[in-house]
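Journal club side-thread
Mid-discussion, someone asked how the predicted structure for our own chain would compare to the paper's figures. Pasting it here so we can look after the session.
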Amino acid sequence: MELFNSLSRKVETFVPITEGKVGMYTCGPTVYSFITIGNWRTYFLGDMLVRTLKYLGYEVDYVMNITDVGHLTGDNLGDASTGDDRLEKAAQKEGKSALEIASFYTEDFYKGFADLKLTPPKQWCKATDHIAEQVEMIGKIVSAGFGYTINDGVYFDTKAFEAAGNTYGELSTLESIKEGARVEPNPDKKDPRDFALWKFSYPGGREFNPEVDDAASRRQMEWESPWGLGFPGWHIECSAMSQKYLGEQFDIHVGGEDLKSTHHPNEIAQAEAATGKKPFVRYWVHGAFLLVDGGRMGKSLGNAYRLADLEERGFSAMDLRYFYMTGHYRKQLNFTFDGLASAAKALATLKTMVVKLKQNEAERTVLSSEKLNKIDDFRERFLSALETDLNMPEVLAVVWELVKSNVPSKDKYELLLEFDQVLGFGIGEWEEQAIEISEEVRNLVEQRKQARMVKDFGEADRLRQMIANLGYEVEDVSAEESVVKRRT
């Protein structure tokens, strides 16, 4: 299998550390708000990779984190060691506890995960459940000489790390990022690139003092540590938890392309500083951004759509899943509702055609060598598309060619069931949906069919509009067949 490795910046042949087994980690959500369709594209990438690896016969040990503490708002401004904790800020805004915020949005995330039929990881891991592991890793980093303490926390020493012969920032050009462009520089840091391993709740790591501290601003999530009272930095959780469940070195790490600039390089630095082993991860796989109407997605722009927003407009999570497959994961994909509608229509047509295959009760015919070769050819082309850096648009093209081919129905259906191990549409669960259609509509549909057969397309269009006026729409599956659906 060929994968683009962000670490080497080239397509490489995938070779796991242990033959037949793959350790894989995907950076999960920070659960302070609803997940957007931009976020879901990254988790869909993780799902496609897991499904493909399993289809290829690998045993996959899949892990995903839930960030429920330590992700500061300064990340939006270029320094994840500054600003307010996103969970604490959301708690203040919504009048709930930080735990309630985390629990609510985590459950919403799990629901969306299931709706999109994403493969659940073998291990979900929450940052707040692994404070001890994070403290232990920070201790190893400090003991190795790569950490230091200042007034607001414990920081990673990038210069010391480089002086020891290590490379910092392999995934990005961090040296070109200057602190202070959008945030106030921290003068106590040894180097602008240094980042927090442990943040103090109060200066110097002291306890809450009611005589000088505002009780209303007291943190809800804080823990004791060898350095003082506080909470872990955002980056340390992924290094600590991935190594706990996958070992000091593992195969694949997945995330959005925005994490290449600081979060993932910092993960690498922390892990390799704590263990002295290189590489921490062999293959780094990043998904490109999802655009909306040709521009960026943002809550301030009102276009940070959620699954619920799509459902309100009559679309399903499966429509979005199909839409994601229309673009390569390393290329920006432009979301529009017209594009989603096209994906929904294609998926509905595919479902109609596949259900007819499923309902075909004819016995399987004796296959000629020509048709046997054709089945093998479809399987090989499907596999080739997957193995070529997860080329999902080509995968869809093979699926459509198979559906329209002259391969016998039962054999075609069984091959589609096999392909669905990767597609994840739940083809085996598809059933024909009964639609109550009046005699008037049935007559119009039959008249339109006759008009199309004699190529009177003007009359066919007129009849289509009459059907639409009655609340139905016609989808043409082939030259001879159509399906009628209620209009949404």
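Post-session note: The chain has a mean pLDDT of 91.
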